[in-house]
Amino acid sequence: MICICRGRSSGRMATPRENPPTERPNAVRRMRERRRRKRRDRTEVSCCVKWVVFSQNVLFWIVGMLIFAVGIWAWTEKDTVNNLKRLTSVAVDPAFLLIITGLVTFIIGFTGCVGALRENTFLLATYAFLLGLILLGELTLGVLGFVCREWLKTQAKEQLQVLIRDYREDEDAQDLVDWIQSKWLQCCGITSAGDWNNNMYFNCSSTSSPEACGVPFSCCKPEEGTYANLQCGYGVRRKDDFSDKIYNKGCVDAAQMWLDQNLVIVAAVAVGVAVVQILGICFSQNLRADILAQKAKWTRYK
């Protein structure tokens, strides 16, 4: 005989909504904790910083190569290797300065560009070190410019004496002097037109030079409505009064006056260059720190 219980049960069957499993809150908590731990452990190299450093230094790299190539071309055109006496004036040789500037720019651009592209921490550290070294040198020169003005003026006079001595012998020196005297400062000589007596072509005792006791054409004041006369300075220092023909101010004093008048612009340019260098150092160090953190994570999970 089959017995059927007709009595009612005292309770109802539990539904999932009313009585959830006790394991579910723990599982959710563990999942959240796992995600939080994974988020804290996530390290990655910033693509934005990487490509900013890379693109900026590609430009420096190309510009450095071009400047270096122009300097080498100018150096070989003057045949300096076979004319060793010109090696004494390399400090003011425009070709030599182009070579040094191009080489330094090329090295900095190379370390920054390849270091960012290959994520090489050594090259990035070298890049930041070179930028910091140049920044320190610029700050040192800026301080010396205000503290040791007389010493800098003495150094400038010595270098200008070399340029005046090599005028006509070195085409680059000649072009540089003409640009300084006519285009930039409107001056003549170091302190006066008499400094051109130190050049053998403009010396008053020279008997074979048609330019004896004269000055270069870049010393002459331009006359409105006329073409430039390349012989305007011939024999001009033989006259008692030549102030209406040539510039009377020396280039050292003219440079100091120009600097005083444009001090704000010079300072703004210097600050702008320094800011770019500081940003380059910060970006490269940030990128290097990201790379090192990523490498540390790989080592930890090997």
From TrEMBL:
Any one GO molecular function term: enzyme binding
A GO cellular component entry from the record: adherens junction
Region (Disordered) residue spans: 6-35
One GO term (biological process): protein localization to plasma membrane
Protein topology in the membrane: Multi-pass membrane protein
Bilayer-spanning residue ranges: 58-75, 95-117, 124-147, 263-283
Keyword tags: Cell junction, Cell membrane, Cytoplasm, Disulfide bond, Glycoprotein, Membrane, Transmembrane, Transmembrane helix
Gene3D superfamilies: Tetraspanin
Cross-referenced Pfam families: Tetraspanin
Localisation per UniProt entry: Cell junction, Adherens junction; Cell membrane; Cytoplasm; Membrane
Family affiliation: Belongs to the tetraspanin (TM4SF) family.
Listed name of the protein: Tetraspanin
